[in-house]
Amino acid sequence: MKNLTITVEDSVLEWARVEAARRGTSVSRMVGDFMAELQQREDAYERAYLAWRTDERSWQGGATPQGGAAAARKIGGRRKTGQESA
Fold this sequence. Notes:
This protein is mostly helical. The chain contains three helices and two strands, in the order H-H-H-E-E. The chain has a two-stranded antiparallel ribbon. Strand 1 (74-75) and strand 2 (78-79) form a beta hairpin. The longest helix is centred in the middle third of the chain and has 34 residues, at 27-60. The protein is elongated, with a radius of gyration of 26 Å.
């Protein structure tokens, strides 16, 4: 584990000390836990974004979704019947 020095306003440090005591932990542990949680959220977001981008590419590449030709004919929220002019 590494040490980290931060600079905060006096009022923020006072709040952090009170909050850490209320939670039964230290300011150092509270800041470390906060940073670890933030890292996990960012990692989860990045994984979800990459999964979405991968999925988006798979259907934009010309592959038709489930439903085949009927789904491919759906245009602008209504089905093209074949009787309409192009």
